[in-house]
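Subject: for your reference before the review

Hello V.,

The reviewers asked for a structural picture of the protein, and I figured it would be easier to keep everything in one thread rather than splitting it across files. Below is the amino acid sequence we used in the manuscript, unchanged from the supplementary table.
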Amino acid sequence: MADFWAAPEDDPRTAGNPDGEKATYQEYLANYRLTIGMKCEGLDADQLARRSVPPSTMSLLGLVRHLAQVENHWFQRVLQGRMDAPRLYKREEDRDWDFTGATPDPAVVADAFATWKAEIARAEEWLDAFDEADLGREVPFDDGGVAPRDVLVHVIEEYARHAGHADLLRECIDGRTGQ
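And here is what came back from the structure prediction:
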């Protein structure tokens, strides 16, 4: 078990049978968020910023910055209609700033994790107050609309894909694998 993240009895993730659609989305999101955090635990700035394979700019730190941006974009900008708010970790001259700006600087690491956790808290606050009956009600997006249900599934999909990336990145750093 030494190569696993946590002993089964210490794993903070849940596997239940949530009551309702919204609760199901919330449990999946919570578990994937925990998984990303677990993949980053115990690493220093150099390890967190270590890139996968050239020419990729992907790193664990980049994933944290990217997921902060995902949380902000979908929960704040789209679902709450704040499209005029500035995008996190985006630059006009570098569309991949969330990854390319993930440098092995402790201040960059601290900012990324603080921002990610703040965006999660804001998303959770909004979702806790959201009426499950409105999951299919479209909100304006691009030239049409999008239902909160679709956004939630998309964010879960983002986390699921990136948890797989994080698993491989962490394994390359110290051999630890996910469970």
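For the response letter, the relevant points are probably these. Strands lie at 139-141, 144-146. Helices lie at 21-40, 45-49, 60-78, 97-100, 106-129, 148-174.

Happy to draft the paragraph if you're swamped.

O.
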